[in-house]
Amino acid sequence: MQWQEEAIVLGVKRHGETSVIAEVMTRERGRHMGLVRGGRSRTMQPVLQPGNLVDVTWRARLDEHLGEFRIEPIRQRAARLMESAVALYGVQTMAALLRLLPERDPHPHLYEALDIILDHLDDPAGAGELFIRFELAVLNDLGFGLDLTECAATGRRDRLTFVSPKSGRAVSEEAGRPYAERMLVLPAFLGPERQETASPEELEAAFRLTGFFLHRHVYDPRGIEMPSAREGFREAAIKAARERP
Amino acid sequence: MAKRITGPEIEKLIQLLAKVPGLGPRSARRAALHLVKKKDQLLGPLGKAMGEAYDKVRICSCCGNIDTADPCAICTDERRDHGVIIVVEDVSDLWALERAGAMNAAYHVLGGTLSPLDGVGPDDLNVKGLVSRVAEGRVREVIIAVNATVEGQTTAHYITDQLSGFEVKITRLAHGVPVGGELDYLDEGTLSAALRARTAF
To answer: Which residues contact A216 (CB under 8 A, 6 or more apart)?
Structure first.
């Protein structure tokens, strides 16, 4: 068995003294793991940093085997990512989100989104908005997508200001007002009437919204904690949005 | 079933030696044979030294270093500048910096880096100890000397966030061209980091 594809490095795990098990995200084969012999060498360590775009050749005798990777660098983004806290927290959090997906299950749009967001992580304010959309896409691929296009009660497509914590569907201002305390806020940039940029308050509400559903549908049922890097990313993105001219 | 060629004691010695970094089953067998041949000069003293180390070795409650005393020799050394703390991932990094001898400062060993893949979170690292050392008010500078990896730098930013409320200067090691390094063989990330951090000649 053999295939060759472009991939984004998500992380590595030590294996023995000289090798690592690399975890990469590919367009056609989703999240994939493989053994990299000599992965802890001076030449391979910089290549195997999360966020780098690499060319991967996977080989194994049987499809269900872990297999071996031969990796060549294409674009090494890690050094640029290391310059900012937002970028580092972002790459770690996105890798953690992709780890929630089943291995070897293709999610081409998530691969594309990851590639784009990694290129824009040095713009923290814009990265926050992209990241929220990435979390929504992961929720959707896990089967817990939110319907933010129309009001669950009235069917209206305008003035959507809430999200029902029960159904994960948008609710218009008039229908949701009596239950406002129990509702989650729908930031305007996620609704059908999209704005160009999100305000710090809207970003905060968006992180609360996706965080709520990730906890309820993903982290709590699996008994795992939300990655601490997400909190770091949230704080840094909101701070950057506040400092935006 | 394979024939046994040595007694169970020597087999056990080989099995344990094979777990030492740098040794595989074959080299462990060679090492064991060497030790057994030099029983009085090597095996006996080595066993005694290991026993003593096992009894006395402990982790410093102040900095996380490994020593036979608590606090360790570095923490009790009055000639060091305890106003500067160098934060390292592991004791091996502390030893490497001590070999370099560039700073006469105190240290703080984190015990790893934040690693979601390995399940290492903030509570698994010795960050609270560092915060409480800084909170005592005697520290002027914290030098974060973690590896130049995504995980290492994420940990560095996490520490910076934790120390943001204190009046302390936080610095990190420079990233760039290693001594003896040829530009042609460096990755583009290191090269761009080195160019960004260029200094006046």
So the answer is: A165
